# Entry
Amino acid sequence: MSILTVPDSLPRRRAPLHRPLLYFAAADAVLVVVASVAMLVDDRVIAGSAAWFKPMKFALSFLLYSVALAWLISLRPKASRLTWWMANVIVTAGVIEMVIIVGQVVRGKRSHYNTTTSLDAALWMAMGSTIVALFLATMVVAVGVARARIGDAAISWSIRLGLLITLVGLGLGQLMPRRESGIDGIAGAHTVGASDGTPGMPLTGWSTTDGDLRIPHFFGMHALQVLPLLAALLVVLAPRMPLLGSVRVRLGLVVTASAGYAAVLALLTWQALRGQSLVHPDQATLTAAAAIGIGVVVAVMISVASATGTRKVATA
# Structure
């Protein structure tokens, strides 16, 4: 079993970083700070949470998303004009969405699902259009990146599967506008089993009493960061854990982690749609979670055992 060194195993940039994505990420980083400070001095409440909480969350999410996407695009063997322009579409859509979200907070109004006035309805319609544009542009970028061979098999598949799950997570956001809010002028909801504005968890604001569709949406879309970082971590640990020097082992662990991530995403979606809070799982949810955990452990053991068996045969 050959051991690859960290510099040889980790992919390197082969195309320019997408500067608009990085500028957007920098602006989001500033907005995270500004919104965090604003929450301390502005005591207004919109839809059951601090007025500046939503801008802070969205800015942080876009920050992580933009940096990860810019990095992945730079790993392609050569620059792609189509990928570059689709990334520009993502930036444009993200900027429009953040401007509307912040603008509505300044006005003291809800941004999402708000159709109470003609202006609010127009802004919500614009947000809906940007969400669709962002999803489609991300899909094009994902196909372009997935077709390229980036690093070894484990790294390549962590990126491909991470992008696939991210697209599913983005798509799950479309469940929210389809729900009845029970409030005049509000065309959608993220809470299942109650109106939006139920007691929320610290930091995230996710409902502690009912189902919340924001949970699978958030969890799914950030597979783009989690799975490639896991693959990179396995490479970094390889010098200390010789077993991880095998691409076959790392690939098995990446596929296992991806399958486990997708299974948890399905579980979170099922739990939310049943109107069940993340912090109050019932027996069915706990049983499903245990089955996922056992499946992941067994798959990890199989990956390690198969590589160990191969090494024994090679040294016999």
